[in-house]
Amino acid sequence: MPVPIGRARTRGVxxxxxxxxxxxxALSASLxxxxxxxxxxxxxxxxxxxxxxTHTGNTFSAGADLRxxxxxxxxxxxxxxxxxxxxxxxARVTGHVRAGGLGLLAACDMAVASRAATFAFTEVRVGVAPxxxxxxxxxxxxxxxxxxxxxxxxxxxSDEAVRTGLLTAAADDVDEALAPILDGLxxxxxxxxxxxxxxxxxxxxxxxxxxxxxxxxxxxxxxASGQARxxxxxxxxxxxxxxxx
Length: 245
What we know:
Number of domains: 1
Strand order of the largest sheet: 1-2-3-5-7-10
CATH architecture: Alpha-Beta Complex
Order of helices and strands: EEHEEHEEHEEHHEHEHHH
């Protein structure tokens, strides 16, 4: 059954909403495909000036869906699609973001979140690594700050996410913070926006070209490992995995 992606347009800004609240907007194969289709429509529509990527429910995305995970190549394709889309993409976050969902934020051109939002790279706690999502993350974030969050899986808040480079801004009122950004994009020439985005994303795309195959293989290997099976089983059974001391 297709995962619904909410769509609305206001003055040239297309809002796409992840709307699989039963799974906390986890990145299932079906959600990745549906979001990719919606982004493709936006990229081909000359009336779309910018895209806002947001969510329903209290979670932007819980990361990879452990019951219906997308193939690593499909997630690479979605992240690259966000980076290459000839329209600015702004993430609007009013809930929590985990693991693979942080890759979506990093692939967007800007990201604004509520101060109530929380973030965590939980991959190491279930026996895998943030491999594929590193493609947009590593070129755009502070390496020292990212090391702590990658290696510990700790939860952190919006202000730390801004310091890390994961977010553009944190605000009590997300829509108030977004308003001047969207106004600026509406006042900008569409071709100039597309070319300026190309300048900003060149280093990120170099990382995709250089590392995508290696990180895709790493992701597939880790997801098939014994530690991953134990970690994911423990997560679903709401217990500590066997390696916790």
